[in-house]
Amino acid sequence: MEKFFRRNFAGYAFLAPWLIGFFLLAIGPILASLWLSFTKYNIVRPPQWIGLDNYFYMFELDDRFKKALQVTFTFVVISVPAKLIFALGVAMALDKGIRAIGWYRALFYLPSILGGSIAVAILWRQLFNYDGVVNSALRLVGLDGPYWLADPKYSLWTLIVLAVWQFGSPMLIFLAGLRAIPTELYEAAEIDAAGPVRKFFAITVPLLAPVIFFNLVLQMIEAFKSFSGAFIISGGSGAPLDSLLFFTVYLYEEAFSYLRMGYASALAWVLLLIIAAFTAIAFWTSKYWVHYENERG
After folding, report:
1. Is the pLDDT of residue 208 over 80?
2. Which of 114, 131, 136, 127 is nearest to 158 (CA)?
3. Nearest CA-CA partner of 217 in 169, 159, 297, 275
4. What is the mean pLDDT of the chain?
5. What does the alpha-carbon distance between residue 273 and residue 279 come to, in Å, rounded to a whole number?
6. Residue 28 half-sphere exposure, CB side, CA atoms within 13 Å?
7. φ, ψ dihedrals at 191, nearest 5°
8. What are the tens digits of pLDDT across the range 125-180?
9. Which residues form the ABC transmembrane type-1 domain (predicted)?
């Protein structure tokens, strides 16, 4: 054992800063939040052990928890497929060998860099205000736009559009996957008189399935964690009428507006379990539609 440590001392010494940060800043808070989820804690007073009361209250009595789940699931179910379809469409358009493709890639990736920032959320709120750019453009063609952000029928859709606008990251991954598909397959399909639709479903989709699966899992997790856009546009309360009450916004409100840290910790663990369950389902279903190169022999 002593010989082992002496031989690997240099490696562990270089790893030490990461290991210290991991255990103090990641594992420590994770375990602390798990313990706090079984307590009543408001920062001012010491935590008081209450067992599973936070979880019983959440699932049996808390209507805003159920509303937060409904809003978050609606956002995930609509925004993730819409973003992936849009990203794949743009990637296929860029895969045609057009000039200055590097500039187009950078231009389309820009929203993904800016999309999660507070500044873009504020800009989005200005765009969709009743007197904002969107309604001003509609008035030019004789249409009177609705109150996009104040009307619960439209408010969530503005955030879905914002999520789809951040298509740059999955688009770049799709583009790399499309470049890896052998062109000989498309040439052989053309000889067999296959049209664009048949080539897409018979060649592109099956060979791109691992990339689609990778993007699906990443974007689903990101959608469940969406926070800044809903927080800024709703003023941190989920307004109007809780139509923008994302799970993360509700968690933040419980923790930092009402100082119910124990209940917020329980919410955080429920969100973790939801994400883990959906990720596990995605991996379980992947064996039916995702095929890798080494499996084809």
Report:
1. yes
2. 127
3. 275
4. 88
5. 10
6. 7
7. -60, -35
8. 888 888 888 999 999 888 888 899 889 999 999 999 989 988 888 998 999 999 88
9. 69-282
Largest CA distance in the chain: 81
Domains and CATH numbers, the chain: 55-287 (1.10.3720.10)
CA distance 50 to 260: 13
Residue 110 in tokens: 């820009």
Q: Compute the distance between CA of residue 203 and CA of residue 195 in angstroms, rounded to an integer.
A: 11
Helical H segments across 205-259, by residue range: 205-224, 228-233, 247-252
Burial class (CB in 10 A: 0-12, 13-18, 19+), 141: exposed
Integer Cα distance of 36 and 49 in angstroms? 8
Task: Count Cα neighbours of 185 within 13 Å in the Cβ-side half-sphere.
Answer: 16
Exposure of 128 in the CB half-sphere (CA atoms within 13 A): 24
Per residue in 248-260, pLDDT tens? 999 999 999 999 9
Give just the sign of the alpha carbon dihedral 171, 172, 173, 174: positive
Predicted local distance difference test score (pLDDT) of residue 56: 95
How many beta carbons lie within 10 A of that of residue 68, not counting itself? 23
49: CB partners within 8 A, 6+ apart: 38, 39
Rg of the chain over Cα atoms, rounded to whole angstroms, equals: 24
